[in-house]
Amino acid sequence: MLGWVPGVQAISSYRREWLAKDIVAGIVLVLLSANMSNVIVRDIHDAASFLVGPFKNVFSPKSHKADIAVNWGLAAVVYLLVGSLIAGLLVRMAPRGVVRSRTAAV
């Protein structure tokens, strides 16, 4: 009935990890003072900045680097937790007691 659930769960897991990795990469680039005129650095930073939009200025440390690390780190943790919650709910939607076996090619 809900054969799509494992596939959707895998996509959900992949997305939450990708989002968190993108945010963490942005944090690392800021903390290491990466060259923002570099196209790759700027694209990663812009993507991370877009993802953490709702989490800007949750905390207000004095240092710009600390501000990025704390607020963007919070966003990464929230994305991981919410993504895990969604993936867990999808697993619970799957029918129980159904054994799926792969059919061998004849």
Unreliable spans: none
Oligomer: single chain
Task: Label the overall shape.
Answer: elongated
Structural class: mainly alpha
- Helix % is 55-70%
Q: How many helices?
A: 3
The topology string of helices and strands comes to HHH
> Care to count the β-strands?
0
Strand content: under 5%
Distance between the termini: 26 Å
Note the main sheet. none
Radius of gyration: 19 Å
User: What do the pLDDT scores average to?
Assistant: 83
Total number of domains: 1
What's the short version?
By secondary structure, the chain is an all-alpha fold. Helices cover 66% and strands 0% of the residues.
Give the helix/strand layout.
Layout: H1 5-31, H2 39-51, H3 64-93
Helix pairs in contact: 1-2, 1-3
What this model shows, in words?
- By secondary structure, the protein is an all-alpha fold.
- The chain has one domain.
- Helices cover 66% and strands 0% of the residues.
- The model has no long low-confidence stretch (mean pLDDT 83).
List keywords for this structure.
0% strand, single chain, mainly alpha, 106 residues, 3 helices, elongated
